[in-house]
Amino acid sequence: MAPALVYIGLFAAVFAVVPAQAQAPALGGASGKPGVARLALPRMGEAGAMDLAAERKLGEQIAQQIYRDPDYLDDPVLGDYLQALWQPLLASAKASGELSPELAERFAWELMLSRDRSINAFAMPGAYLGVHLGLVAAVGTADELASVLAHELTHVTQRHISRLIAKQDQQAPLVIGAMILGAMAATAAKNTDVGQAVMVGGQAVAAQAQLNFSRDMEREADRIGFGVMTDAGFDGQGFAGMFDRLQHAARLNDDGSFPYLRSHPLTGERIADMKARLALSHAEPAEAQRALPPPVSAQWHALMAARARVLAEPDARRLQAWAQEPSAAPASLYAAALSASRLKQAPVALSLARRLLDQPALDAQARRAANLLALEVWLLPGNSMAMGATAAAAGADAFQRRLAELADSALAASDRASVLLGAQVVLQQGRPSPVSQRLQVRVADHPRDAAAWRWLAQAWGAQGQPLRAIRAEAESRMAHLDVDGALDRLRSAREMAQRGAATDHLEMSIIDARYRQLLQRQRELEVERRH
After folding, report:
1. Could you tell me if residue 206 is left (phi over 0), alpha (psi between -120 and 50 degrees) or otherwise beta?
2. Could you state, in order of their start, the residue ranges of all structural domains in the chain?
3. I want to staple 139 with a disulfide (CB 3.0 to 4.6 A). Which of 65, 144, 174, 343 is the partner?
4. Residues above pLDDT 70, as percent of the chain
5. Is the CB of residue 89 less than 8 Å from the CB of residue 150?
6. Which of 311, 17, 382, 378 is nearest to 164 (CA)?
7. Residues sharing a CB contact under 8 Å with residue 524, sequence separation 6 or more, in sequence order
């Protein structure tokens, strides 16, 4: 997929022309815990790194291409699950000093999900992090997934990509250019053979130097990432578990479904180092052990792994099998309901979702996921015909009344998935006013939430406010770094006002100001491209 190609191509090109300079750090932790002695370890540092603004701009250029890729997936349900892993890791990195306040403020720290079934995650310049559905589906525990995210987070906090780019010799511009062109060619044509053919020349420049330096970076990412992960409340065994999965894939002569192995070479030294680190952590005094509950429950992880597996599956026969043969396990019922939903089997999906909701042993996190799935399948054509504004009336089916109550509570919730799914249900009930009120608060707090802007546009449109709807559409484009698309929507609003089709003068003043601001941004981007 394109994001993986961008990452592997760019990173491989950078590796290929950089001599091995850093020494492998000694065993030890990245951050401290009360009462536990930690070895003082050398770190590769930031000497020679490209400046933060340049790295952020480079990351935005790559992210813009990913947003446009058909495999890019904005799934609020999985997004909230990943954030439940990601935010504790960020907080841990800040608390330990690995993530500086300046870096935290100036970089994006955005997770980008891909429909790709392969096992991969990747860090890009400017702290854009890519995660494939295949990885979420394949890991056995949330701790294993957290270990991957902590590792990628460390690649960013230690400025690995930026320092490598900054230290290139005279071949670097040509090699990096070839890599990015190859990745973009694969993006545009969906032809990985073409992209790989363009990239292979750059990868062959100095393969041994690439491997040597990448091992140094991997050791550092392991060492610091382990400390960040365990201090965030995750079980360090997740690192070892993920290593076992990768090692098993390597023994099977990786068939291409594990690109993570190619961009993150797994060596015997790394495995031995992690085992020693685990043994050291298990030997810590009892007072240093964390007694907090894990950030993500095992049940929630199982449901989200099932979701990733279903969303990544292109074969309708496999989906049909999952929908027809669920066990009583919550993850199996979840996969069955979602599979039936993807097959547009609305009544079947709703019946399966109801069975999941009736499971008595769901913990709080898993029950929230089950509630959201029920709202999701209730939106399907066939189910939604009975969803009018009177769904909660006394004559309605008790289960429909229950879902209507769930929708109202979801719209009022704080998590993104609940708000967006609640908004869709309430809109479909013909009640746009509470949706626009809630989503205005959402976008004020989260202006980069493209989906919230899109649903806000629909709510405003349903209330006969076309200028506000068009401005929301423009902000949705801008949230995905599409300046040209945002300007196009704002021009449409200006033309509408000039034709006399809209008379909201206050809204037009807001649109005019935003139009001038984005026009200036477009000019700045054109200057940057020329230079």
Report:
1. beta
2. 2-17+46-285, 313-358+366-398, 442-531
3. 144
4. 72
5. yes
6. 17
7. none
